[in-house]
Design goal:
single chain; Tetrahydropterin Synthase, Chain A; binds the ligand Nc1nc2c(c(=O)[nH]1)N=C([C@H](O)[C@H](O)COP(=O)(O)OP(=O)(O)OP(=O)(O)O)CN2; elongated; alpha+beta; 5-stranded mixed β-sheet; 35% strand
Length: 127
């Protein structure tokens, strides 16, 4: 299995309105470092998983709707907790939509909250 990983970051504001999250129930900011790992069982005819430029652009496009936004105000997150885990899946699904034709077998997105805490979601595309 081959993997290509690209990285970006995104700044957001959000709140987590559930008593489980203590002070994070209030509006706060987060800068997530986002790593996207793209898997293919075999390389393509160019000897790559996906072109790095294409993967980087696709990740930036996937993150754009979140950038500098208050996630509480976005229609698709109304009534949902925008935890790091939930956002990792959301980004993975958007990325898979953009790179779906690239023969990938899986997309894994890691969102790093800070250097000591992160969450990830692995989306299998075919197996
Ligand atoms: N599994 C997750 N746990 C938490 C998430 C998350 O997205 N996934 N998010 C938060 C908050 O948004 C924030 O990032 C941290 O808030 P904080 O109050 O500092 O939470 P901690 O768990 O780090 O510390 P406490 O001692 O529990 O306050 C929180 N958790």
């Amino acid at each position: 299995m081959f993997t290509l990983t690209v990285r970006d970051h995104v700044m957001v504001a959000h709140s987590l309105p559930d008593p489980a999250f203590g002070p994070a129930q209030r509006l706060h900011g987060a800068t997530y470092v986002v790593e996207a790992s793209l898997e293919r069982p075999d390389l393509d005819e160019h000897g790559i998983v996906v072109d790095i430029g294409e993967a980087t652009a696709a990740l930036a496009e996937a993150l754009e709707p979140l950038a500098y936004r208050n996630l509480d105000e976005l229609e698709e997150f109304v009534g949902r907790l925008t935890t790091t885990e939930v956002l990792a899946r959301w980004v993975a699904e958007r990325l898979a939509d953009r790179l779906g034709a690239a023969g990938l077998s899986a997309v894994t997105v890691v969102l790093r909250e800070h250097p000591d805490a992160w969450a990830s979601y692995r989306l299998r595309l075919r197996w």
